[in-house]
Amino acid sequence: GLYREERERAAAMLYSNGPVQDDNPHMVQLGTEASEGQMRWNCRGTIISRTTIVTGCQCLLSQGGKTTAVRLGMSEKASIVEVEEVIYHPEYTNSTKQYDVALVRLKSPIDTAAAGKFPACLWINQTHTPFKMIQTVINETADDYTYVTTKYNSDCTWSAGNAINQSQLCVAMIPQNTIVSSGDPLFWSGDRQGGGQQVDYLVGLMSYSAQKDRSIHVHSRMSWFASWIKTII
Question: Which PROSITE patterns does this UniProt record tie to the protein (predicted)?
Answer without folding.
Answer: TRYPSIN_DOM (PS50240)
